[in-house]
UniProtKB/TrEMBL annotation:
GO terms for molecular function: carbohydrate binding. Gene3D superfamilies: 2.60.120.200. It comes from Selaginella moellendorffii. Residues 4-219 form the Legume lectin domain. Belongs to the leguminous lectin family. The keyword Phosphoprotein does not apply. CDD domains: lectin_legume_LecRK_Arcelin_ConA. Keywords: Lectin. This is Legume lectin domain-containing protein. It comes from the Eukaryota.
């Protein structure tokens, strides 16, 4: 886009689309000699907007930060948020990696999909190898409403030394003021390969939405 932001999917807002935007080079996320995952920290700002021509609100979509094993696979549209497709979907909950893809995602979902156990149509969720979230939180508790077209800032941090992940979300992120919406102990090593691709996926359903990444930083060690 002309303003330097990235739109996902790349087309103007259309129904039933999915896409992804990933950093071009893979990142070392797991040490096979020690089986210790990398610690990481990422902060990004984004906007989700409804299309003015959209008349259906039956299904929406959303955006996800993703750590994926390859740069080519694009997941399904609608409730799958572009994260996973039919070949790799596992409708399972829990922290076990059995039968799951090495995928980690934090979703920002605009639709309550009962099939996936969504709590509402305005939530953040931690997904481990599945479209079903292991942990969710209501974004309205942070004063964030995904559909209203306002800029949202999120920070996701993982400390591998204590195996703990936190997600903070706010309209104007200030780490000294914002409490984490998700704060959970989790060993990510089972969901990682040595090298992974990091970035974003997004999808639309019957309702056409546009998802724009305004800024992004990522670091790992």
């Amino acid at each position: 886009m002309g303003d330097g932001s990235i739109r996902i999917p790349a087309q103007d807002a259309q129904a039933n689309q999915a896409g992804r935007a990933l950093f071009a080079s893979p990142v070392r996320m797991w040490d096979p000699n020690t089986s210790i995952p990398a610690s990481f920290d990422t902060t990004f700002s984004f906007v989700i907007q409804s299309s003015s021509s959209s008349t259906s609100h039956e299904t929406g979509g959303g955006l996800a930060f993703i750590i994926a094993p390859d740069e080519l696979t694009v997941g399904r549209d609608a409730g799958y948020l572009g994260m996973l497709n039919d070949a790799c979907v596992h409708h399972r909950r829990g922290n076990s990696s059995e039968g799951r893809r090495p995928v980690i995602a934090v979703e920002f979902d605009t639709f309550k999909d009962d099939e996936f156990g969504d709590p509402n149509d305005n939530h953040v969720g931690l997904n481990l190898g599945s479209v079903i979230s292991n942990e969710t939180a209501d974004l309205s508790n942070a004063g964030v409403f995904l559909r209203n077209g306002s800029s949202v800032t999120a920070r996701i941090s993982y400390d591998s030394s204590i195996q703990h992940l936190q997600v903070r979300v706010n309209s104007l992120l200030d780490d000294d003021q914002v409490l984490p919406l998700i704060s959970t102990p989790v060993d990510l090593s089972s969901f990682l390969k040595e090298y992974m691709f990091v970035g974003f996926t997004a999808s639309t359903g019957a309702e056409a939405l546009s998802h724009s990444i305004l800024s992004w930083t990522f670091s790992c060690a």
